[in-house]
What does this fold into?
Amino acid sequence: MTTNMPLFPLETVLFPGMVMPLHIFEPRYLKMVNHCVDNQCQFGVVLIEEGSEAGSHAKPYTVGTAARISKVNHLPDGRMDITIAGTHRFRIQELDHGRPVLTGTTCAFPMVNASTRLAEQMARQVRPKVLEYVDLLSDASNTRLRLDRLPDDPKALSILVAIALQVSNEEKQRLLEIPGIPEILDRERFLLSLETMLIRHMVATQKEVERMGMGSTGYIFPN
It folds into this structure.
């Protein structure tokens, strides 16, 4: 089954279940938002592969996430601040550049195999890596990041990790395009290990540089 959907190319990746604020100022997207609000329909968020958010049409990746508008704040100058929530993935089958807003013929692209034994196994391996990753980020940024409880459901865990990972948009898009939950979690396990190693190196190097620049009194030597 296919659906015609207005598309919003952005320089960020939206995942199902993710909440995102957007500032709308282009007239064509103001009309799109009003249309979606009036008709209680969704639009698609897609990462830009080539081009930019403003101005002419951008070329998007072919996998995106449908977005439901949950909050609208109309500003005095006609612009809007909205809040959206990702609902489900889709794959673009055909693009229509003939309208003010890019439109796509899309089909659903569900996340599969979330209830399998393999998904549970991968989730058990990912959970401790997530906690270690968050602790290291806290140390590196001198802030106190907290995760009170990780989801038991492998699908929910995979989405939380995808949102939390401090990686490039291209890497997040790669996660969005992986069909099954076990495979998504496996890729996230790799990324968590890699990012943890990089953060450890960064923190250790930073401390070493600080020690090298300190005098016997504990003050950095002036230039």
